[in-house]
Amino acid sequence: MSAGKTKITWMHIVSFSLATAISYVLGVVSSIIFPVLGAPGVSALYVAAAIYVPLGIWMGMWGALAGYISCFFLGIWPSGYTPIQSFIWAWADFLEALMPVLFFRLLKVNPDFTLKKPKYAKAMALLIVSGSLLLILGIGVQVAFGQYYGEPFTTFYVYSVYIGTLLAVIGIITSMFAGDPKTWVTYAISGVILASLVSGIWGAGTLTLWNLPPPLPAGLFYIVFTGWVIGDMIVLSTIGTALLVTLTPLIKRTGIYVKGWWS
Amino acid sequence: MYQSRSIFHELLGIPAEWSIYRQLHPFSKIIIPLFLSISLFLVNNVLSAIFLFSYVLAIFLLTKIPLKIIKKYLLIVLSLSTFIILSIFMFTPIQEGHVLFKMTLLTLKAEKGTVSWGVLITDKALLKAFVYISRIWIMIFTAITLLGSLSDREIIWGLRSLKVPYSMALALALFFRGVGLFLKDFQIVRDSMMVRGLDVEKGSLLLKFRAYIYSLVPLIVLMIRRSQEISLALESKGISLNAKTRVLYYKMDFKKLDALFILTTVVVLLVTLYFGSSGV
After folding, report:
1. pLDDT tens, A7-17?
2. Angle formed by the axes of helices A91-106 and A61-76, to 10°?
3. What is the pTM of this model?
4. By C-alpha distance, which of B232, B33, B238, B171 is closest to A82?
5. Residue B170 has pLDDT above 70, yes or no
6. Region B182-209 average pLDDT
7. Biggest alpha carbon distance in chain B?
8. Contacts of residue A152 in chain B, CB cutoff 8 Å?
């Protein structure tokens, strides 16, 4: 006998609403305690991301929606964006949570965050964050100076891109030894690197380039982008990982766990 | 009509006095800030910025939200303005117009020339900075008007009167309730940490960061427990997800005053469009 298709229940709706509330509260607190000055709503350590990205892994699309709605309200208060600016900006957090949802669901990865060797998980965080920081800095220097003035900026760009890529790749490989390789590699790629990058591009872009109207001048794109991506990577690879390791077994036993996209 | 506490009153404890604007239909109180948001997009020059700012300020004064609310946004306005000025005068300086001030701070010899970086202030750059900073004030006053005049109940009533599904309205109501609950929970968790000797307030950034990790686990466990209790309560009351409850306890009427406010805001939008495209 095959099990029937699971339907959406009140448990999904209620847990989604409460998860959105937690994400919002943490978003407000982190944008007040660790602000990126000049970019309201952006936090150097955006702790709310460590809630809705794991929620995406546990609750599928509900997690991504929680990210969107909490960010929408965060945009209005305390950031002070208009409802339309906030509507456009908030997709950054939706996309951030969507990345692991897509990867875990499409690749049919059953999340098993049992930690066998904790030191590898710590090394993964350090390597991925430092590698990405070098990579972003290198590209930034090349775009701003290297293409116009040549040396010494080009050499800095080449070295930082090579070393940065190498560190990030070693970080991904290291994650394989932390526990279940499929789960950890999928999380490192989609839940840490891609999630931060995609949300950073959309978030910084809507603050400086393509909102109605963007609250900041276009010249600040790269500064906001770098702060956003690195801040999110630190949070996702440390707090996000800690939450996934601690709570995944517990959540899998409750009704809020979603195997598919919505139920 | 029953006047419930505004979202700002709930979140920040700042009540607004009785005002004509607060008597408007929730739909009006949502659509007016939306029109103002669209108008903000049309602000391209000094004239349109001053015109829209005056209207937004008038609406804000009509809401009778205490002026002290602006204190909460002061850091945002100051930091944004500083970044805008730095960006326009230093990061990507505007070369057009009459030069008012010029100073080179750093020069570096490179392969294809010399990189020089410094401060460049032109009259065009000053006007651009003025427009950007005015937009920030308009943005902030629009957000304050929305949250200071509207209550969570009104949003739910508004949605129900627009025949939005019961489950969606309930989800939004739970979100608003959840914010208050988790703010209290977050405070309780932090207090219990301090009772155990972890002084988060005076601690380093690293300690604050660790304190977050410690406080998140109990918050999520509380969330799971509450979700189970509330969903079981809903199930046990026999409320299905597709419930079509048509009864509305509070009835709101769309009055002439609503039409007047909306019409005026539309006119303001059109005038801003005209001023914005005039190139003054």
Report:
1. 888 999 999 99
2. 170
3. 0.86
4. B33
5. yes
6. 81
7. 76
8. 110-111
At B199-250, the pLDDT tens digits run 777 777 777 777 777 888 888 899 999 999 999 999 898 888 877 766 666 6
- The residues near A192 (Cβ < 8 Å, ≥ 6 apart) are A128, A233, A236, A237, A240
**Interchain contact, A13 vs B167, CB within 8 Å:** yes
CA dihedral A97, A99, A100, A101 (to 10 degrees): 80
Q: Chain A, 47-76: which have a CB under 8 Å from a chain B CB? A: 47, 50-51, 69, 76
Q: How far apart are CA A123 and CA A131, in angstroms?
A: 12
Could you give the CA distance from residue A249 to residue A245 in angstroms, rounded to a whole number?
A: 8
Q: What pLDDT does B3 receive?
A: 62
> How far is Cα B254 from Cα B27, in angstroms, rounded to an integer?
9
Can you tell me which residue has the tokens 């963007």? A214
pLDDT number for residue B2: 54
On whether any CB of chain A is under 8 Å from the CB of B213, the answer is: yes
Distance from C-alpha of A121 to C-alpha of A245, rounded to nearest angstrom: 10
